[in-house]
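Morning, I've got a small favour to ask if you have a moment. I owe you a coffee for this, so here goes:

…
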Amino acid sequence: MNICILSTDQEKDDHRLLEAARAKGHTAELYNIRDISMVLDTDKPTICWRDKDITKTFDAIIPRLNVNFTDYGTNVLQQFICGRTYVSESPAALRLGRDKLKCLQYLLARGLPFPATGIAYTPHGFRQLAKVIGMPMIIKLIESTEGTGIFLVNSLKEMDNIVRTFSQLGASYIIQRFVAEAAGTDIRAFVVGGKVVASMCRRSQDGDFRSNVALGGCSEPYKLTAAEEQMVLSATASIGINVSGVDFVRSNQGPLLLEINVSPDFTGEQGIEKITGINIADAIIDFAVSQVHGFYEQRFSSARVLESPRGILCADG
């Protein structure tokens, strides 16, 4: 099978995927999304890598998109889908996973638990919400990642300062109840194709309320309870994502979801692959390959085809 891994800046993870695909006997290439260009044309839609036409080159596309490349990257994926090439993630699911607020609304629709969260249009509106959320609270950029863009505040004055600053910068943000009993600790469950393949507990080493490995946290293997696993899988199903890292905390009221990370990291000394000994790269490749044959046999069996009286417009995988 001919596989393309669409990369941004997760070099270690993406090379692991490349190695895993080739070790399984597949032809695989690693292309940076920056080198991809497109021509939208009714008669001949085209996708190029540098100066090479790759419109019909690959059987499967596995996207690995960093947050800064979400818009362009999902447009590239949509172009592959329009060209009837299998893409392992839905562009819509990737966009949802990157929008923290909208993602929480999908969790809410399924009745899944997460800390009370608020959003307002103006800084003054956040002052009113603070009465409901309470102090201390978390202020989080909607497109935050790896612990950056997340702040713990203990007073209205601190909150006002941050939300006014974000507003002046035109940034979108939310406030969220702080789960004090879980400070500095969380659980990461790695999901591939509707199955939890690995999970670990992350702990801050310097008193930081954030436990992200990227910020110096350490990790250890963790076994999910049946209830936690069901919650995690319901969360990923709610936005239709196939590969993700789901973060949650253990509170006095039970597990609470924090976020769904799309295109999650899995390598590194404190990464989930090293900590658990589970071959995450193999799991991702195996899942993608398992879906390809059915996709081409049934024509968009894994995609929603958008139709008009004039015929198929495109497909949202």
About this structure: The longest helix spans residues 280-298. The mean pLDDT is 88.
